[in-house]
Amino acid sequence: MAGVKRKTLHDYFGQEDKLKMASASTADTPTSTSVSISNTAAATITTATEHALLVPAGLSIIHGFVSEDEELAILSFLEEQAWRTDLSRRSLHFGGTYCVMPPRDSSPGTRRRIEQTIITAPSMPAELEFVLQRMVDRGLYVDSARPAYCIVNEYRPGQGISAHVENFRFGEPVCALTLAGCDTMRFHQLQKPHDGSVRSGKAASAPRSGKRQDVDMARRSLLIMRGEARHSWQHEIVRGRTRSRPPAWKRVSLTFRVDKKG
Fold this sequence. Notes:
The chain is α+β, with helices and mostly antiparallel strands. It has a single domain (34-257), classed as Alpha-ketoglutarate-dependent dioxygenase AlkB-like (Jelly Rolls, Sandwich). Helix content is 15%, strand content 29%. It has helices at residues 9-12, 68-79, 108-115, 129-137, 227-231; strands at 34-35, 44-47, 50-53, 59-62, 90-94, 97-99, 118-120, 149-155, 161-164, 174-179, 183-190, 208-217, 222-225, 233-237, 251-257. The protein has an eight-stranded antiparallel sheet. The longest helix has 12 residues, at 68-79. It is globular.
């Protein structure tokens, strides 16, 4: 954005001046079904260690993508980083730039100032290199076009993320690694592909077919979104479903994205 000074995360957030945003979830009327990879053979098609779900089409899971020791090493590294605190959950960015979400009660002037602040994220850290290489080794990406972007979200009891699709400026697959705890991701089928990312503000207006599907994400599993699952289904973490978790529960999600080809 021309004329706007780029800042780092440390420049923008101080210990005494952290932005917070209250998030609200909306409920749907259709009933939900749940698919777990451990369910009957009719629910999945298995090829080697990657399990392809029938619904949504293009969605698959690799269980045990990282070991317990690797999980602990990643979590220890992440905990030492400077986390975003302007959302209802803690988050981190690696690669690219991003804008901050202003609080809902911000004045118009404050909102403009915050939205025009561009933060340059640190590049993909060496500590995650083995994860990228493993995705290349499994054939998810080619070595010359591996993910350059990673968003880390920490979910505590009662926290979630609203239904959205990943920004269409990124390619596929989009891969999400689940650490620390298991959870369920809810998918909503759209009437047609719709570029309604979280930041765009267009997600709520995306026309849905009324069909939805819950997918279990085991600890240390990698969720892979391609094709319809990536472009024609919104996905979310329903906030209300985690409220019954014990206070110490958390799930840390690492979402890897790649530049679109061409």
